[in-house]
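Subject: sequence -> structure tokens, single chain

Hey, anyone have a minute? Need the predicted structure for the following. Not urgent.
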Amino acid sequence: MNPADYESWYHTPRGHWVGETEYALAARLLKSRPGETLLDVGCGTGWFSRRAAADGLRVTGLDANADWLDYARAHSGPALNWVEGDARALPFADASFDHVLSIAALCFVDDARQAVAEAVRVARRNFAIGWLNRSSLLYLDKGRGGGSGAYRGARWHSAAEVRASCAGLPVRSLKLRSAIFLPSATRWARWLEQAVPAALPWGGMLMLHGEKV
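Reply:
Had a minute. Here:
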């Protein structure tokens, strides 16, 4: 999939709903304030980076794909910073950012455990990492057999595996929440998203939040 096609999905009714729902969950967990810094690991075309910048955060987006970063630069203002780099070896000093965000990106990274360790290392306050949930209707619809569309090649995780990704790291107050309980953007799906507690671990997106020790 090329970056233009990927970005265009976020402008469809379903894509916009999914993106806003996932971002809202991360924002509630991070409790960030305007003027604070945020690193978006695996930013891709920069949709979540731009969304965070719209809330007044000073955002740096990092991705390993230069073509996708070029797209991000061409479709954002000068206030956002874009860096090419490996999630497993982030080119930043310890505690460089108030917050670290990564949504459905580490599912495509070999040695995701090392990428989590790096996210924790460069975080000053807290982090929110979104994982694709193997125990979800979204997995049954989009994840089986190697995945389809933007999910092709992704690794889907259980809640236990997500929690285990932080074992031995300097973090506290781990929380696991989920979103996108139905893989559609119907009125029923939107209603269910509001009615079902995010603490239930069956949404298509598992969001792990923790505070830096």
